[in-house]
């Protein structure tokens, strides 16, 4: 019994019944009393005895009787109900000799108690697993609401058990890289009785099985090194486990959780090659904040206007697919990859672009960022529509691109150019510049650390790289020498200007 409970496996009732058979030389079965069907039995149990026992088994199972002994043909049969509630099974002991002695009857009764305990342990374990699953789903739902900037939705869906995190003024996202087994253990070890994690929230990422997303309340106005609670716990875990890495965002309002997650993902990419394997996001001002506001918003709205005719779910899926792979979108939304692809195809037809091209994705992402900002003023009507190229020719954009790429040495820039020109295909990039695919990926890992951008896991950092390379190569000769395999990628930058309204 102890062995079975410790290993948390399904209880092997047959093993217990066989043990009783060896002790007192009887036939034993565990029977569902309401249907008189055997759940388990010893080898050679006389099934024919169950038919005349049917009325007795029903009375036992329903609680009218606790135990009974009866003669069936030449068999002495002893029946005892197990458990105290629900539809209870009955232990049936059949002896083809004299009636069981008091000691044998006591041993049979004790065996029934053991089986009842094993079943109760199994049921408790099943209930616990069900609770853990529901708690995990609820935490993910809260995260999903925060990722779309709607803390009120997160609060409404948790009415009666609102997580303390939703009362925080600011949060940081800590993104922990560890094994899938470890992240489940960590999540459960720090879970409280409400299914949350005190003032914080830990969520197993459904898209990336080695990522644990931790939202840490940060109302202390201190730096990340001084963040109390689970922030210190996560740092200690990384210190003690050489295969772990941790990326930490800056502080954000709850409604900006998506930006915090993006920062943490970029920081994690840098952390993998950092000696301590912990990195805090230190990024520049985003490109979108440096573009001329009115022309930028005018371009973005004109570029994305065809999406207005599509269902909101298509737009939302397309938006998500700009920052994570399609397979991850399918996992996050519990959809098939074919369904995700179908939605993206509709968006492609509406926009007239190929969203498998990194330049098109970079342009769409920038437009979505611009239209999603509440700080930009409304553009005046009947203005001349700028192109994205026009927006990126400004001095502020050029300064941003130069500063962004400044940490890279010549070999890394060369590899990065080749990789983007090969549409982020490492093998084709390797062929173009005469190095191995592994060398390309090694260079890209170095670039991730130097730029604090995730290029190879979620790929969300590619968009800034695309814009920075386009800006710097355009400045060299007045016309971009940064050309890939898809003409649509270039057209996303050079769309013909027109008029608004």
Automatic annotation (TrEMBL):
Q: Name one Pfam family in it.
A: HTH_30
The record's listing under Gene3D superfamilies reads: PucR C-terminal helix-turn-helix domain
Task: Map out region (Disordered) in residue numbers.
Answer: 477-501
Q: Where do the PucR C-terminal helix-turn-helix domain residues begin and end?
A: 326-369, 414-456
InterPro entries per UniProt: CdaR-like_regulators, PucR_C-HTH_dom, PucR_C-HTH_sf
What is the name attached to this protein's record?
PucR family transcriptional regulator
Q: Which organism is it from?
A: Nonomuraea deserti
The organism's taxonomic lineage, starting at the top? Bacteria, Bacillati, Actinomycetota, Actinomycetes, Streptosporangiales
